[in-house]
Amino acid sequence: MDRWEWKPATVGEALQAAVSFFTQSEIPSPRLEAEVLLAYGLGVSRAGLLAMLRDQLTDAQQARLGELIQRRLTGCPLQYITGRQEFWGLDFAVTPAVLIPRPETELLVETALALLGRQDRTAWIADVGVGSGAIAVAMARERPRLQVLATDLSEAALAVARQNAKRHGVAGQIRFARGDLLDPAIDAAIRLKAVLSNPPYIPSGHIPSLQREVAGFEPKLALDGGEDGLDLYRRLAFKAGLVLEPGGFVALEIGYNQGEAVSSLFAAQGFRDIGLIRDGQGHDRVVTAVWPGGKER
């Protein structure tokens, strides 16, 4: 910032200054972000931070907090600074190699679990574009008999997902594979009960206009859905029928205005019982479709 001045003597003064800087920069929830960032910088919980507001800062603490605040002011997402994000009640490691898990993606997990039912047999599902592993790990935690094929083109993303699977005790249920969409399932001749994905769905031309935290810092590979945002859905609609068992299904997150278009893509490939699930804002968020069988590999 042009008027950067950072000389807090106490934790409380540091918090007050951080909130002021974040407010001026129009960062959403400035108090919350300031508390989380300072707690991270001091190695304490948010409750611990609030209990030490009168504590004096050492020179080293003052410098570290100043560096963290300046980094956030550049637009770097809080989650990339702290290296963590909560999803499905679990703490996930995140890096700039992966998309930051969003709360709305929990609707995809809820939908897939409902479609799977109790699942009293071992079955394979795929998480296409696994990223941080949020979907794959949540599914494995909820259904211990599931085996999850987690694919991604990014080796760096797969490394983060492996770390999260190990952290949450489900590494034995997840097979990680570097590859394009469902190619690893096709190559390994795995029949899937379900294909889940939160694919890139932002039209290429819209990416520069996204908020700076997204456009400037999150991986373009996880955002760019091609000219109309539907490139990955077209390819998934074709390939899913090659690997799904009869009666298997897809459940895919979509952009708020893509429900009709994505539904039509899957209907054209022979999928049936196509459904649209709306999020808490009333927007179409998840497309589901059932594969009746019949396509040869």
TrEMBL record:
Keyword Transferase: yes
Gene Ontology molecular function terms on file: peptide chain release factor N(5)-glutamine methyltransferase activity
Domain Methyltransferase small: 119-201
A Pfam cross-reference name: MTS
Binding site for substrate: N198, P199, P200, Y201
Catalytic activity: L-glutaminyl-[peptide chain release factor] + S-adenosyl-L-methionine = N(5)-methyl-L-glutaminyl-[peptide chain release factor] + S-adenosyl-L-homocysteine + H(+)
HAMAP family membership: RF_methyltr_PrmC
Role according to the record: Methylates the class 1 translation termination release factors RF1/PrfA and RF2/PrfB on the glutamine residue of the universally conserved GGQ motif.
Family statement drawn from the similarity comment of this UniProt entry: Belongs to the protein N5-glutamine methyltransferase family. PrmC subfamily.
Name listed for the protein in its UniProt record: Release factor glutamine methyltransferase
